[in-house]
Design a protein that fits this description.
14 helices, eight-stranded mixed β-sheet, GMP Synthetase, Chain A, domain 3
């Protein structure tokens, strides 16, 4: 359904009234399940609990949580009551955590027991410390004793009101706080519904962290807008992934390429493929999906993998391949659904078909702006109002976008621009490569030269000479990496995207290369 005029609250209320007995959410770790009517009551308890804490709506309700019942109920319950919600990333480290808590003016921080020490370390750096509320195990959230009271739930949020604060991963400089409204979040969910043809009969498995926009907009808002089901374990586990899909009758899932790699590495029963008939598709986003991995996964599991593209500032989805695999173009995140996408420069000059420039988007899913940063907000848009993603790409005659790299990640060797993505795609062809990323290193002769970081599949070996030969034969000696670094795991941001700039920083220092 088109969410025009709706808020998170109005949609939950609508589903609780029209389909009260339809199951909405399952938490497989605890076995708890809730219908739309039951879920509405739980969300109203959250609102009453927060109202009782005397919180104002101009600062966010924050959480430092893993996935599961507490996280989902705080996420939707806060917005149901008209509060802004901010789910902090526990992987960001204490210094960044301290910064975003202070920058966001957080006054209350719901904290899972496993993150209590991290929270205390972060807060020790602040003079104005928020209150820490330790959460209970996920089958007993702290608001369980709060009884829904219509007299307390008086604020009716409007579509244009702030609903979500989420910080970008900040690969360079400090993270920026992205502000989303009820409208932009729901349109992110609607873009998901339209692209994947979701219906109330669908059931989504969410294994990505709820502090990331993919889980927030695709998995949660996508199911909310389409009134379909949600399955939310506490975290991704490769050994349990397929049993969750089968036991809970999931029809689709949203993951990142790294998860597909992990699933390829787990030995499964020969009967598994025949048990996945209920799955309509799998969705890959947040990082480019190497064609070699794409083909291998589909062949092994007999599933359709739909490559997509989304970013924090656009409430996740802005491009998707169609569901029909005959219309897929490997190496492309697809075409625009629900919003408009173009290839243009910073001034808004649109590129010709096949010409490289910046990927830009316009739609009701785009953020309101960056918190306390009007200059960055202004710089993020072209003069004619399109959001600048910072991704370089080309569009073909069918409207498919091919991302060629990031504006700040381009390798410029001897004045020639080299896209790291094309090198990654070659490296992933080697059967023993689990993760790969090309990045620039300083060079006295060319200004920059090409390097590559590799993570091997467990128990397998990767011969450097094989990789050199593979790259030289595929893309030529000039573009092929001159140096290779082998790591157990490549550094990633909160979305699972490999951080090339961290690799460049690490290996640009000669001391780090010893």
């Amino acid at each position: 359904m088109n969410p025009a005029g709706h808020t998170i609250r109005s949609l939950i209320d609508q589903h609780a009234e029209s389909i009260p007995e339809q199951q909405y959410v399952v938490y497989p770790d605890s076995g708890s399940k809730y219908t739309w009517k039951e879920f509405q009551a739980r969300i109203q308890s959250v609102t009453c609990y927060l109202s009782g804490k005397g919180l104002t709506r101009d600062v966010p309700v924050a959480g430092l949580l893993g996935n599961g019942q507490t996280a989902l109920e705080l996420f939707l319950g806060g917005m149901y009551g008209g509060f802004q919600v901010f789910l902090a990333n526990p992987l960001s480290g204490r210094d960044i955590l301290a910064y975003v808590i202070e920058h966001s003016d957080t006054r209350i921080l719901f904290t899972a027991p496993q993150y209590e020490e991290l929270a205390e370390q972060a807060l020790s750096q602040l003079s104005n410390k928020p209150e820490i509320i330790l959460t209970q195990p996920d089958n007993l959230p702290v608001w369980d004793k709060a009884v829904p009271d219509e007299k307390v739930i008086t604020h009716l949020p409007q579509p244009e009101e702030k609903a979500l604060l989420i910080y970008t991963s900040g690969t360079t400089g400090r993270p920026k706080g992205v502000i989303h409204t009820h409208e932009s979040l729901l349109y992110g969910g609607w873009n998901t519904e339209v692209a994947h043809e979701l219906t109330p009969a669908d059931n989504s498995l969410c294994v990505l962290p709820l502090y990331h926009i993919n889980a927030q907009a695709v998995s949660v808002m996508g199911t909310l807008v389409s009134s379909s089901g949600l399955v939310m374990p506490q975290r991704f586990q490769a050994s349990k992934f397929w049993s969750w899909v089968i036991d809970e009758e999931c029809t689709w899932f949203s993951v990142v390429p790294t998860i597909l790699s992990y699933l390829m590495n787990v030995e499964e029963d020969d009967k598994l493929k025949s048990q996945l008939n209920n799955v309509r598709f799998g969705r890959s986003a947040s990082a480019a999906l190497p064609p070699a991995l794409h083909k291998a996964f589909e062949a092994r599991f007999g599933l359709i993998i739909v490559e997509t593209m989304g970013i924090t500032e656009t409430a996740a989805p802005l491009l998707s391949n169609p569901l029909d695999p005959k219309l897929h173009k490997l190496g492309s995140p697809g075409i625009a659904y629900g919003n408009k996408v173009r290839i243009a420069d910073a001034e808004g000059t649109v590129a010709s078909t096949g010409e490289e420039s910046e990927v830009q988007v316009r739609g009701r899913n785009v953020m309101q702006g960056y918190l306390k940063n009007p200059d960055a907000t202004k710089d993020a848009f072209t003069p004619d109002g399109w959001y600048r993603t910072g991704d370089l790409g080309k569009m073909d005659s069918d409207g498919y976008v091919f991302v060629t790299g990031r504006l700040k990640e381009l390798i410029i060797k001897g004045g020639e621009n080299i896209s790291p993505r094309e090198i990654d795609d070659v490296l992933y062809r080697h059967k023993s490569v689990m993760e790969a990323a090309a990045f620039p290193l300083p060079d006295d002769n060319y200004g920059q030269t090409v390097a590559a970081a590799i993570a091997r599949r467990p128990g397998e070996n990767v011969d450097e000479m094989e990789l050199r030969k593979l790259c030289t034969e595929s893309i030529g000696e000039y573009r092929a990496p001159s140096q290779y670094f082998f790591l157990d795991e490549l550094p990633k941001g909160p979305s699972g995207k490999i951080q090339r700039l961290k690799l460049a920083d690490k290996f640009s220092d000669p001391k780090q290369q010893i």
